């Protein structure tokens, strides 16, 4: 995949757990709620239908208790290899209305999980429609927040039994 540095935000890391365990942290909503949001934010609910057109729903909560629902659709789910979703659509590719103007710009997310040694070369990419959307998401802290969440993912995936 070719990265456009103007519209794509990228976080890449070598995680210590193998791809199957990292994938499990994405695929299981209970596990996703444990690591997805950089603390002190939390993810209080999630629904993931791992099929093209499946629902990808998140309910994030700010430290002061404000909740932010985010509807999305799975575009591609290749177990232990690649997960792609967008918040431009919801279940069965129905267009989604933006929940609130302050939630942030819409994007398509691409996660890849490649075996490397005993771990996983993990890459998450947020693809935006415009340079302005990418800048707004970057200024909102996407890269820093994703880096913290990736650290949380790394820690949780190492705790899971193989």
Automatic annotation (TrEMBL):
<dbReference type="InterPro" id="IPR013538">
    <property type="entry name" value="ASHA1/2-like_C"/>
</dbReference>
<comment type="similarity">
    <text>Belongs to the AHA1 family.</text>
</comment>
<protein>
    <submittedName>
        <fullName>SRPBCC domain-containing protein</fullName>
    </submittedName>
</protein>
<dbReference type="InterPro" id="IPR023393">
    <property type="entry name" value="START-like_dom_sf"/>
</dbReference>
<feature type="domain" description="Activator of Hsp90 ATPase homologue 1/2-like C-terminal">
    <location>
        <begin position="16"/>
        <end position="144"/>
    </location>
</feature>
<dbReference type="Pfam" id="PF08327">
    <property type="entry name" value="AHSA1"/>
</dbReference>
